Amino acid sequence: MMNGESLVQASRRDFPMLSNSVHGKRLVYLDNGATTQKPQAVLNRIMHYYQYENANVHRGVHWLSERATLVYEQSRNKVKQFVGGSDEYSLVFTRGATEAINLVAHGLGQSHLKPGDEIVISLLEHHSNWVPWQQLAYQVGARLKVIPLQEDGSCDLQAYADMLSEKTALVAITHVSNTLGTVNPIKDMIISAHEVGAQVLVDGVQAVPHKAVNVSDLDADYYVFSGHKMYAPMGIGALVAKKDALAALPPYQTGGGMIRTVALETTTFAEVPERFEAGTPNVAGAVALSAACDYLEAIGMGAIYAHEQKVLRYAKQVLADIKGIVIHGQAEGNDAILSMTMDGIHPHDLASILDQNGVAARAGHHCTMPLMKWLKVPATLRVSLGLYNDIDDIDVLAQGLLAAKKIFQVT
Question: How many domains, the chain?
Answer without folding.
Answer: 2
